[in-house]
Structure formats: C-alpha cells, structure tokens
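hey m, so remember when u said the tokens were messed up on ur end? i reran from scratch. heres the input so u can diff it against urs
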Amino acid sequence: MKKILVVLGGGRPNGNTRQLVDSFIRGATDAGNDVKLISLNMTEVKGCTGCNACRYGKPCVQKDGFNELVPKIKAADLIVFASPLLFWTISSKLKAFIERFYCIAEEDPNPLLGRYEKYPVKDAALLMTSADDFFWTYEQAVSYYKFTVINYIGFHDKGMLLAGGCGDTNGKPQIDKTNHLKDAYAFGLNIYKN
C-alpha cells in the first residue's frame, strides 16, 4: 500500500478536473492505496515571496494553509498534481503550492545541475483537463511539470493523463463524453503495479 496525496489546483466543484481526480482516486483506492485529497479551492496556499526565512528546516512565515500540509507532503509516497489548463499551463493555485516546496528543502553540499538544495524523494504524476485538444495544448504545462517537479525538485515521474477535448469554455463539463474517466480510473488502479 502506498500513500497518495492528490492536490487539486482549482477548477469547478463538479467540473472536468474534479471528475478526473475522483476517477483516479477510485482506481488508486481500489488498488489498496491510502489516498488523500487536498483541494486548493478549500485550502489557501499563497505563492512564495522569496524571503528566505524558511531556510533550512524552518516553517514558512506566511499565515495560510501550507504549513499544515507539510506533514502530508512528507508522508506521501506519491503526489498527484491536478489542474485544469488555464492560459496554457497549470493553475496559479497549483503553481503557488509547488513554489512553497522551497520551505521543505534541505541543505545540499553537492547540488546537481544548478540546484541549491535537495528535496524529499517522492513519486509524482500529473492530471490535467482542457477544452482544447491540439498537439500543442499541454506543451507549456508539461514543460513546467517536467522541469520543475521532475528535473529540479527531483521527484520520480509516474506518468501524466492529459485529458483534452472535454468541451468548450462555457463551464459545462463534458468529460463524461470522452474515455478520460475510464483512463483515469485505470491510471490510479495501475500506478504501482509492475
């Protein structure tokens, strides 16, 4: 059994992204994993201010929900980053959450490739939804995820589900007219199967 933390970075309460996340969670739970969901719509996490007060081993000085999430982040084997596509990348709420990882970094005397610190070793996955489904739709979001979460922070990529073509931007979810919910269930069910 793995501990999975799903971080939902916005979206509508019953929108495409939430439905995708719920399907992933059902699959991961059915596989015997312990899954927790954090909605950044319900927990305020402000962006990093770059004040450096948290270096090293000190909590962030900002008074929001992030410090309460740190034990959950550290306990997780896998962190799933979930977001609707907003202006061709992840939501600002999810980006703020990732920025605040700075306060869980540890000093690294031999940093790799431009890094200044080291982070807890975790697995990561990306779930996203969008109205568009062009070959370039997720290019910026995937680039940010791969560079920041995988290459810089150093998490191990367990995969991505990029659910394009979920309807237009009128606020009416249409993900149920695609295969994405089945794909999300299978992704969750099989994420730790060999």
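this time it looks ok to me. The mean pLDDT is 92. if urs says something different then somethings off w ur setup not the seq
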